[in-house]
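Task: sequence design from structure.
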């Protein structure tokens, strides 16, 4: 099988034996848990759309290993066209879910691990790439959702991994055996971890010789012995327990992050893709981060499309759609959103082939893309709140609207234009609240800041990739100053 249906995906998750804690309790059935399920629905959409002939071109690709049709999330980019389609697919999924659909981290991880293992083998004579290709083949065959796990808890940021008081603050090798390695530690903020079949671990920073035990990359089943998850809280998450339809803002979809803990997890050699080669850990981080910074030029734009649409509707329902400043603010929102997209497309179009044969984005433009993402969604959200009005955060609950006693008062006093039912107005405001302040704000706001690396990380890359010396030479030439 190379393409799972949405139902097969859900069933395959039920077969996993994940150890998930949520609000202090072990969750028996994550798939049906009301707080988790909307995030599963978002990943499910990546399977559903791959079956739809309308989206086949974006959602699927031809495997360079087997020539079979595979989900694009399991594909190694074979051209700049593939890179562009990736961004378009992410925008589409953002539009369909208005949430983080989580599966991108695995796609970005396989593309980074592929080229880095290849180059590592070339330089050091190791055989990681062969092992990784075997894993990839299985991933494509099984249509796995893979959690690309990079971010360690990191403890004291002024200390390197091996200097931390607690050695587990970075994932590390505690034992090397004849048949494999044993690892301990944790990965934080793991997007989609509970909805994944497999974990693909990568180191989180560039390392030096003393950190060699921390330079480790491997694949493991999401329910491997010794792996447990602690589910991350989101703003307004318990509204999902109220069986609410309106108040949740987005009833069907969501995203999630979790702390993933490795307590003496055994990894057989065939699943180990880096084991002590510290000089390659920085390269792996740079490539994964680069791909994920490209990703945000797609997913955030898709969610932005929904937010802009919701804001325009809120203006209409308020009777303010014709005001010139409202029109102008909506134009500004579109301008910002399309600027994010432009960078996502540009870094893809300017991509190039790596030594292993897959394609990588232009790193400078991908970092500019993500740097914009740390700002523009905030401005788009600010404008959405401006147009939506204060009612977005002061309006009564769905239960009040439906109350036999006071429902008519909510109905009467929160009506905007008379042609639109009050309920529609409340629904659209709750959706804006969800994206800007509620559960989806994790993905649209704070993750825009810190996901794929905090703003300063992009500025370091922009400084490195920006070629300042060439710019100075250009200026000298024009100004008539002798060249070097
Ligand atoms: Fe994909 Fe965006 Fe979620 Fe990252 S934040 S996993 S790129 S949807
Ligand atoms: Fe992310």
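Answer:
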């Amino acid at each position: 099988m190379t393409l799972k249906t949405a139902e097969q995906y859900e069933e395959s998750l039920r077969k996993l034996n994940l150890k998930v804690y949520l609000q202090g309790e072990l969750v028996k059935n994550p798939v049906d848990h009301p707080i988790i399920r909307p995030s599963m629905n978002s990943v499910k959409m990546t399977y559903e759309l791959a079956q739809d002939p309308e989206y086949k071109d974006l959602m699927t690709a031809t495997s360079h290993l087997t020539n079979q049709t595979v989900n694009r999330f399991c594909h190694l980019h074979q051209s700049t066209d593939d890179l562009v389609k990736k961004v378009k697919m992410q925008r589409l999924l953002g539009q369909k879910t208005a949430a983080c659909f989580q599966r991108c981290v695995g796609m970005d991880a396989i593309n980074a691990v592929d080229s880095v293992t290849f180059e590592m083998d070339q330089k050091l004579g190791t055989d990681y790439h062969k092992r990784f290709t075997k894993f990839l083949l299985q991933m494509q065959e099984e249509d796995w959702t893979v959690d690309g796990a990079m971010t360690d808890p990191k403890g004291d940021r002024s200390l390197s991994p091996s200097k931390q008081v607690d050695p587990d603050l970075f994932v590390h090798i505690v034992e090397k055996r004849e048949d494999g390695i044993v690892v301990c530690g944790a990965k934080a903020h793991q997007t989609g971890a509970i909805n994944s079949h497999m974990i693909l671990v990568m180191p989180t920073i560039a390392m030096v010789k003393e950190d060699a035990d921390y330079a480790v990359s491997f694949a493991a089943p999401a329910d491997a012995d010794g792996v447990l998850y602690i589910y991350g809280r989101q703003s307004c998450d318990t509204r999902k327990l109220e069986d609410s339809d309106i108040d949740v803002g987005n009833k069907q979809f969501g995203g999630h992050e979790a702390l993933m803990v490795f307590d003496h997890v055994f990894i057989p050699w065939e699943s180990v893709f880096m084991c002590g080669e510290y000089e390659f850990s920085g390269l792996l981080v740079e490539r994964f981060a680069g791909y994920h910074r490209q990703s945000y030029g797609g997913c955030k734009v898709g969610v932005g499309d929904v937010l802009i649409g919701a804001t325009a509707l809120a203006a209409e329902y308020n009777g303010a759609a014709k005001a010139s400043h409202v029109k102008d603010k909506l134009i500004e929102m579109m301008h910002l959103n399309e600027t994010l997209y432009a960078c996502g497309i540009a870094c893809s179009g300017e991509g190039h082939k790596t030594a292993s044969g897959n394609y990588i984005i232009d790193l400078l433009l991908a970092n500019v893309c993500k740097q914009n993402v740390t700002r523009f969604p905030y401005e788009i959200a600010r404008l959405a709140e401006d147009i939506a009005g204060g009612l977005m955060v002061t309006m009564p609950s769905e239960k009040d609207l439906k109350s036999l006693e006071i429902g008519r008062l909510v109905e009467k006093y929160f009506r905007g234009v008379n042609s639109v039912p009050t309920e529609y107005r409340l629904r659209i405001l709750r959706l804006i609240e969800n994206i800007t302040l509620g559960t989806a704000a994790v993905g649209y706001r704070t993750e825009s800041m810190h996901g794929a690396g905090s703003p300063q990380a992009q500025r370091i890359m922009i400084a490195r990739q920006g070629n300042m010396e060439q710019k100075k030479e250009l200026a000298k030439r024009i100004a008539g100053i002798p060249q070097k």
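The chain has 17 helices and 14 strands.
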